[in-house]
UniProtKB/TrEMBL annotation:
Known catalytic reactions: L-aspartate + 2-oxoglutarate = oxaloacetate + L-glutamate
Protein family membership: Belongs to the class-I pyridoxal-phosphate-dependent aminotransferase family.
Required cofactor names: pyridoxal 5'-phosphate
Protein name: Aminotransferase
Gene Ontology molecular function: any one: transaminase activity
UniProt cross-references to InterPro entries, sorted A to Z: Aminotransferase_I/II_large, AspAT/PAT-like, NHTrfase_class1_PyrdxlP-BS, PyrdxlP-dep_Trfase, PyrdxlP-dep_Trfase_major, PyrdxlP-dep_Trfase_small
Listed EC numbers: 2.6.1.-
Domain Aminotransferase class I/classII large: 32-392
Name of encoding gene: aatA
Keyword RNA-binding: no
Amino acid sequence: MPFLSATLDRVKPSPTIAVTTLAQELKAAGRDVIGLGAGEPDFDTPDNIKAAAIAAINAGKTKYTAPDGIAELKQAIVDKFARENGLSYTTRQISVGTGGKQILYNALMATLNAGDEVIIPAPYWVSYPDMVLLAGGEPVAVECGIETSFKMTPEQLEAAITPRTKWLIFNSPSNPTGAGYTAAELKGLTDVLMRHPHVWVMSDDMYEHLVFDDFTFTTPAQVEPELYDRTLTCNGVSKAYAMTGWRIGYAGGPEQLITAMRKIQSQSTSNPCTISQWAAVEALNGPQAFLAENKVVFQRRRDLVVAMLNEAEGITCPTPEGAFYVYPSIAGCIGKTSAGGAKIETDEDFSRALLEETGVAVVFGAAFGLSPAFRVSYATSDEQLREACSRIQRFCATLR
């Protein structure tokens, strides 16, 4: 009898974590490495949020809480949804987990049966398909290429829906592309969903506050209120509030689903870190001015990276609407050979040779379900980004 579960054969380790780990190991070995793989803001957590955590410790707020969050945090989330998204929830419709990933995982575990299908626009965050597989479902990737600005069309969604479809996982702005759907584009998708009442929507809004130029963020249940009863609106404090390590994600949705998610969490991790919960209360209720200040920095970095990558031979880099990623195509580099003798047949070949020959770590596009491309996280300093892009330009110029 095998010791390890056969379920593990259905999934693979996170490629983004693997790239970040390799970059750290090379740095520790003395290599000059610039890591552009991690989806993590380089800003520090704001002082008022840190102070709230310290105050919670000093006040002895260090005991177990309800499995899916304290009442004060749930109320702060209710207020946030009403204030920023026009969505009305009660605290019974709110779930708080150990990061956004747990929220998504709980929902899938609570709802998927063998053979249930989940539509996932590609490029996608690397964890979506594997979480579906772990929960016993079948991911259905829909390729959304550069010709549609990495966005799924209503026609593509319609064609992907079958009687076995249970969820659409929707992410705007997107990891890995930064693509954001306008309200009109989103309405086109929700119109399709209205014709298929058996399909639920899992909206991952983690990058809500990181949008640029004149783009306005909207979420599915806001665009189409009639989808409210079959939408799980997911978010968290990780990206916008620079709280990745605090591990707090949350969602609002139908009470029946939230109750089922609570049941899963009560038998797995139980409550998220108490101190992190109190910090998140302050994040959501406290001053928000720094969000606009950070957005200015991210937009400047986006513009720098897009301009420099578009100057590299064989690379085409669209300008994203949000998040802190770009997803350049390397179609013009495929089939060539690097100065170090590496044959570039795939985007994984490109990324490996780029790291080995220049010390720049990026994540190859196949990890996100759409090739040939790579993802750059520009959540690092202007100086590092400028140097990394210069190295990429030199690397591409030597391809023959």
